[in-house]
Every structure is written in C-alpha cells, then in structure tokens.
Design a protein that fits this description.
This protein has a 4-stranded antiparallel beta sheet with strand order 2-3-1-4. It has 6 helices and 4 strands, in the order ααααβαββαβ. The protein is of the alpha+beta class. The protein has helices at 6-14, 19-30, 36-43, 47-59, 92-101, 126-136, and strands spanning 79-87, 105-110, 117-123, 140-146.
C-alpha cells in the first residue's frame, strides 16, 4: 500500500469494506449475540468464511466489541438528561475527571463552541439530578435539557 496521510489512509481503508462486510455489520448491529451459524446463513457464507471475515473486521478496528442494549428505565432511571458543561477558568481537567468518574454520566463528548462538554446522564428523578449537578456547579456552569424521547437512537451511518 502506498504512503498515505492518516486521513487519506482512513478513507482508503473504509473503501475496502465490501458488500459482505456491510451485511455482517448490519446484522450484528441488529443482534450482536446471533450465532455464527445464523450470521453465516443470513449473509450467504460458510461459518469458517464468516469467522474469518469477523476476525479481519476486528483486527482492522472496525468491530471494536459487542454489547447489550439495556433498558435503563427498567433499572429505575426514569429520566435522561443532556448537560452542556462549561468549566470555570482553570477547571477543565478537573471537570473532565469528574465527568469520567460520575456514575450517572453514561456518555460524554468534548466539543467545540462555548461549552466544553456535552454529557448524557441518567437520573432517578429531579432531586437526584439536582444533587449531582450541585457538585458539578462548583467547577462549571451547566445547562440541562431533559430528554423527552429519542426519535433516532445510536445507529450505523450509511455503509
């Protein structure tokens, strides 16, 4: 393979995904626990060929792991919130470490713009949210939005 910059190498590598790889990824997104036999039947390959394809997708870092989708409401977390976080001067690293350690923070992105972080949190009720945000308020300004519904959940982009 010729020399590429990191960006062009990523574009080059993504172009190497063929229709069979796309089918594998689509099937696994729907049910990551399906058996190799079931997956093989769905994509029209033998089990050994499918296993080899999976191994290559894992080695290339395209498949990074397998997980379960959990209904957090059934665990007692009735509310999900998005919290935009703007650390106070000199508190960026401290806020980042706090968010990483915060058990109710299930996802967090470092972003550009006025805020530095956008965090998705789950809480049992508003009082629970207030308690957690009171501690964060010592280090950052927060703007919170309660999530009413999620018309688009996390999914694969067009392959």
């Amino acid at each position: 393979m010729p020399e590429f910059t990191l960006i062009s190498k990523a574009v080059y590598m993504s172009s190497l995904i063929d229709n069979t790889d796309r089918a594998i990824l689509t099937c696994l997104e729907q049910d990551a626990r399906m058996s190799l036999k079931t997956l093989s039947g769905m994509i029209g390959l033998t089990s050994p060929s499918t296993a080899e394809r999976l191994r290559r997708l894992e080695e290339r870092g395209i498949i990074q792991g397998y997980s379960a989708r959990i209904n957090i409401a059934e665990l007692g977390y009735s509310l999900q919130v998005l919290v935009r976080v703007r650390p106070l001067p000199g508190m960026l690293k401290k806020v980042e470490k706090y968010l990483q350690a915060l058990a109710i923070c299930i996802e967090c992105d470092k972003v550009t713009g006025e805020d530095c972080f956008v965090a998705r949190m789950v809480v049992r009720d508003i009082a629970h949210l207030d308690t957690e945000l009171d501690q964060l308020a010592e280090m950052a300004q927060c703007n919170t939005s309660i999530i009413k519904s999620s018309p688009v959940t996390r999914r694969l982009p067009a392959l």
